[in-house]
């Protein structure tokens, strides 16, 4: 890796128009007052890094469930998956990863398989670190069917600042572990529901790296 690649990460195409808007506002601020203009420069750089999309090295060992998001594990508890996913009314262990506005917000598939369900539900914009955000906030659920037939739901949840959930996949599509499947703009959370009998290998407060950190092992 070259030195400049350590600091300058590629940007996801979803961020281009936002960076352009920030840059135009910054030019206008310079016309008003230089101090405001330099504040705008800082915000434009932040916007660029918010939409950064760095390469990740996903573990290849079979049976691993990988974190779908960068951030901090905020909750681990047994919960019934959202009704719109059409899954049995049985509690599953939910691992919630909270993303701050400084985390990379590109979401990656926890496992390989086929997209069985994509279900969007509008809602509120509560702080995504709160437990009730999983029930009340805007969300988009994706259910991945693995090769052995087991299902793994992962839910994108909008946060206090986030106002737009983007999902790149559709039902019937194949996806590999660690592949990009979505993005949430400006602060949010990802919930992963582990299959029955699968215990998490992470703890609340642990830092996650999307596409790299192991959340659990299917056949442990």
Automatic annotation (TrEMBL):
<keyword id="KW-0865">Zymogen</keyword>
<keyword id="KW-0472">Membrane</keyword>
<keyword id="KW-0444">Lipid biosynthesis</keyword>
<comment type="subunit">
    <text>Heterodimer of a large membrane-associated beta subunit and a small pyruvoyl-containing alpha subunit.</text>
</comment>
<keyword id="KW-0443">Lipid metabolism</keyword>
<feature type="active site" description="Schiff-base intermediate with substrate; via pyruvic acid">
    <location>
        <position position="188"/>
    </location>
</feature>
<comment type="function">
    <text>Catalyzes the formation of phosphatidylethanolamine (PtdEtn) from phosphatidylserine (PtdSer).</text>
</comment>
<comment type="similarity">
    <text>Belongs to the phosphatidylserine decarboxylase family. PSD-A subfamily.</text>
</comment>
<keyword id="KW-0812">Transmembrane</keyword>
<keyword id="KW-1208">Phospholipid metabolism</keyword>
<keyword id="KW-0456">Lyase</keyword>
<dbReference type="InterPro" id="IPR033175">
    <property type="entry name" value="PSD-A"/>
</dbReference>
<feature type="site" description="Cleavage (non-hydrolytic); by autocatalysis">
    <location>
        <begin position="187"/>
        <end position="188"/>
    </location>
</feature>
<comment type="pathway">
    <text>Phospholipid metabolism; phosphatidylethanolamine biosynthesis; phosphatidylethanolamine from CDP-diacylglycerol: step 2/2.</text>
</comment>
<dbReference type="GO" id="GO:0006646">
    <property type="term" value="P:phosphatidylethanolamine biosynthetic process"/>
</dbReference>
<protein>
    <recommendedName>
        <fullName>Phosphatidylserine decarboxylase proenzyme</fullName>
        <ecNumber>4.1.1.65</ecNumber>
    </recommendedName>
</protein>
<keyword id="KW-1133">Transmembrane helix</keyword>
<dbReference type="InterPro" id="IPR003817">
    <property type="entry name" value="PS_Dcarbxylase"/>
</dbReference>
<dbReference type="Pfam" id="PF02666">
    <property type="entry name" value="PS_Dcarbxylase"/>
</dbReference>
<keyword id="KW-1003">Cell membrane</keyword>
<keyword id="KW-0210">Decarboxylase</keyword>
<feature type="transmembrane region" description="Helical">
    <location>
        <begin position="21"/>
        <end position="51"/>
    </location>
</feature>
<keyword id="KW-0594">Phospholipid biosynthesis</keyword>
<keyword id="KW-0670">Pyruvate</keyword>
<dbReference type="GO" id="GO:0004609">
    <property type="term" value="F:phosphatidylserine decarboxylase activity"/>
</dbReference>
<dbReference type="GO" id="GO:0005886">
    <property type="term" value="C:plasma membrane"/>
</dbReference>
<feature type="modified residue" description="Pyruvic acid (Ser); by autocatalysis">
    <location>
        <position position="188"/>
    </location>
</feature>
């Amino acid at each position: 890796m070259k030195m400049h690649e350590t600091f300058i990460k590629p940007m996801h195409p979803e961020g281009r128009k936002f960076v352009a808007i920030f840059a135009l506002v910054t030019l206008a601020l310079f016309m008003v007052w230089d101090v405001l203009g330099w504040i705008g420069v800082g915000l434009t750089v932040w916007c660029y890094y918010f939409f950064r999309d760095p390469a990740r090295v996903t573990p290849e060992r079979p049976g691993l469930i990988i974190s779908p998001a960068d951030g901090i594990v905020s909750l681990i508890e047994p919960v019934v998956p959202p009704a719109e996913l059409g899954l049995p009314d049985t509690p599953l262990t939910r691992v919630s990863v909270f993303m701050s506005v400084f985390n990379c917000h590109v979401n990656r598939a926890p496992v390989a398989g086929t997209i069985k369900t994509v279900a969007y539900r509008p809602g509120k914009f509560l702080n995504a670190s709160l437990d009730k955000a999983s029930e009340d906030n805007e969300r988009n659920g994706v259910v991945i069917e693995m090769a052995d037939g087991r299902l793994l739901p992962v839910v994108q949840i909008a946060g206090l600042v986030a106002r737009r959930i983007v999902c790149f996949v559709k039902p019937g599509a194949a996806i590999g572990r660690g592949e990009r499947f979505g993005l949430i703009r400006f602060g949010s959370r990802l919930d992963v529901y582990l299959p029955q009998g699968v215990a998490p290998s992470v703890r609340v407060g642990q830092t996650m790296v999307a596409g790299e950190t192991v959340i659990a092992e299917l056949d442990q």
